[in-house]
Amino acid sequence: MMKINLNYINLIVMEPHIEKLIKLTLLLIILLAGLSYWLIPKSKLRSKFQMNESVFVITQSIGILCGVAGLFITFIYPQYIIELHVWELLIMPYFIIYIYWLIVIKIRKSTEILDEKQEYDMSKSGGITFGISIPAMVIIFILYQNEIVKGLIWFPYYIFITILIFSCSTLFYFKNN
Amino acid sequence: MKLGNNIKRCRFDNDDMSQEALAKEIGVSRQTIISVEKSKYVPSTLLAFKIARFFNKSVEEIFYVINDEN
To answer: E strands within A37-122?
Structure first.
């Protein structure tokens, strides 16, 4: 008798529903983020939105978590990461924290929300990320050429590697240099 | 060459001021003060002036050049 993997069938049946749910969640988050950006600077909540060392560290920590989770899930479930829009969902916390930064910029009416060392650390990390992303893309290209990976999977790999390296190096330089 | 400084001594002379309090006064993060104090980060001219002005000293009284050969 043929063995039927019920979990697999369940997932196939549920796939369109999961995709719809994820899309709806993403739409809701983006709408809420847009509304927050528009309304918070005009409301009493504006005083609660501060930029400080903790927010800077939390931003980089969220970047590390998103990067690790994204790479892990891309590696484990490559077939779902793009089809079900999982990569967008995984990147959302990072997106939300940068919306927070944008709200602070709007409240202060100035782009100078970081101190000079934080800016310096981010610039250095940007250079490192650029330097590492090139060999990372070469590796992905070789994997494609040898047909080890297929489809659009290069994109989530690239984006999560970039976020992970950038956040790790920024946090490292900020804490150790 | 490295840029040494007397920030730690100035803080102690200034009622044992904490790094956090100095950072708040200058408008930078505590980590920036720690890095400048440990000579790991060379501050901009503006930040050097801000620190010196806060302690009512000249920039040369706070910062000095350390020659590696010496």
So the answer is: none
**What residue segments make up the domains of chain B, in order of their start?**
2-64
Mind telling me how many Å the CA of A41 is from chain B's nearest CA? 22
Position A4 pLDDT exceeds 70: no
Size of interface A-B (CB pairs under 8 A): 31
Assign domain B2-64 to a CATH class: mainly alpha
B47:A177 CB<8 A: no
Q: Supply the pLDDT for residue A83.
A: 86
pLDDT, residue A14, reads 76
pLDDT at A60 over 60: yes
For B62, the enclosing helix (H) or strand (E) is helix B59-62
Provide, as residue numbers in chain A, all residues whose Cβ is less than 8 Å from the Cβ of B30: 53
Q: How far is A51 from chain B, CA to nearest CA, in Å?
A: 10
Torsion of CA B58, B59, B60, B61, to 10 degrees: 60
Interface confidence, given as ipTM, is 0.86
